[in-house]
């Protein structure tokens, strides 16, 4: 084919009246559909914000732990639905859309396998009620109260007011201690004394010190025993029971009083030391 004839035919098609009408109609149609998609997104987001401000989800669920979790799941689900609806409005075919989401799902699944594990962990935590918001827990060596439970993680507020974010997948695969689920908690304090001191006297003083605290329960009884014979000291374990909410107050009160009580009966708390013998 002659090159001049080719460009002549192309120019004829480009400046054809029907072509311009069809092209303009397609652009107008796309712009209108795009505006409709934007309006749908804005309206849905405003409705969700209004519902959230009224705390409808929290009233219906009645569980503070589920509130943040379900709101985040619903938010992601609604965004996916809106995206699908907008693509259909813009003229994307259903078959192409299914193929797209299928491919996207495989890619996301491979890229976010750890996050999927965290998501599954969050579901397990909520179903089995391992802990709820406000519980005092020990998670991944972090002790504090549960601040919130999200889709992928749990936030723990420590005694230092630090917010520690722990992935849910790590939580369900490791040890969890929930102190709030038991009303009583045993207090254990290790006190070291010198080898020259009287063990029975030290135990008696420590037991009297603990029993004098009004927050310590009479039953189960307070008791003490030798925990270990160390290189520089004898370690005595002092044990008693108190309510869970009084645990930390009682612990610090007794720790502050241990040394003054032992000083009154001339029982010393040794410090690490080393004896060196020089032979000539």
Task: Describe the model.
The chain has 280 residues and is an alpha+beta fold. The chain folds into three domains: 3-111, no CATH class; 121-178, SH3 type barrels (Roll); 184-264, Alpha-Beta Plaits (2-Layer Sandwich), CATH 3.30.70.100. Helices cover 54% and strands 19% of the residues. It contains nine helices and eight strands. It has helices at residues 3-14, 17-53, 56-61, 64-89, 94-111, 113-128, 168-172, 199-211, 247-264; strands spanning 136-139, 142-149, 153-158, 163-167, 176-178, 184-193, 223-229, 234-243. The strands form two sheets. The protein has a five-stranded antiparallel β-sheet. It has a three-stranded antiparallel β-sheet with strand order 6-8-7, covered by helices on one side. β1 and β2 form a beta hairpin. It is elongated, with a radius of gyration of 35 Å.
